[in-house]
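User: tokens in, sequence out, please.
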């Protein structure tokens, strides 16, 4: 593992203009070089309990000297919170208490992404935006068969239904990806409240703005609010400074 990246970061969450409660949660922990966005599953009870539990467990991850050990500890945190949420649902006689989760870890000259669900991580590098995560939803499953395109599924009400989330099943499978990171690269972790209101091109334009990362985060959230913010909105912006 190379030297640690020098980053600046900022997070912001808002319940939006429609929902009565904010079931999103986030972790902005530059000292531990770990960032998280979690989105409690809509339509299920105690979504805020689920998202906050994910943030609590991830905030307790202690980085190890070797990045592979840190990865194991993140996986352990996922497993622990998954078991906790399943137990919570059973104790409170709820069908399910679940949440998406997206985690970004500074691994030194690269970033590691771990996720379950459809909260996303993007990278803006040299003016080009790339989605580092893939949504764990019905749309992805249907497109993987080769019989459907994204355009085919735009009017499909079931396309956005999740097929994976923390707290949904006893055996949680977390997906991982690696992204090279260079100075001036910008990473965004966000709940789907952002992507429902903003296109990739608009997100890229916001991330390309100069100035403090707080201002970029505010642009993202305020844009969503101005467009009606049908869902909870959460964005964490991480910029590589050196």
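Assistant: Sequence out:
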């Amino acid at each position: 593992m190379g030297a640690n990246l020098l980053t600046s970061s900022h997070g912001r969450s808002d319940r939006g203009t429609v929902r009565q409660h904010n079931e999103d949660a986030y972790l902005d922990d530059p000292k531990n070089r770990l960032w998280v966005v979690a989105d409690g599953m809509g339509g299920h009870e105690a979504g805020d309990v689920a998202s906050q539990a994910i943030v609590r467990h991830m905030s307790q991850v202690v980085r190890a000297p070797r990045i592979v050990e840190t990865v194991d500890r993140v996986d352990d945190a996922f497993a622990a919170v998954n078991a906790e949420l399943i137990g919570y649902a059973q104790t409170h006689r709820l069908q399910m208490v679940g949440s998406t989760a997206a985690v970004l870890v500074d691994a030194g000259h690269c970033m590691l992404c771990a996720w379950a669900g459809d909260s996303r991580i993007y990278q803006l590098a040299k003016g080009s935006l790339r989605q580092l995560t893939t949504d764990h939803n019905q749309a992805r499953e249907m497109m993987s068969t080769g019989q459907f395109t994204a355009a085919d599924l735009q009017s499909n009400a079931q396309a956005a239904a999740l097929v994976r989330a923390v707290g949904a099943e006893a055996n949680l499978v977390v997906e991982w990806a690696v992204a090279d990171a260079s100075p001036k690269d910008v990473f965004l972790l966000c709940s789907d409240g952002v992507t429902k209101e903003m296109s990739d091109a608009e997100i890229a334009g916001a991330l390309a703005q100069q100035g403090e990362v707080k201002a970029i985060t505010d642009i993202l959230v305020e844009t969503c609010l101005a467009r009606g913010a049908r869902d909870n909105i959460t964005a964490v912006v991480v910029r590589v400074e050196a």
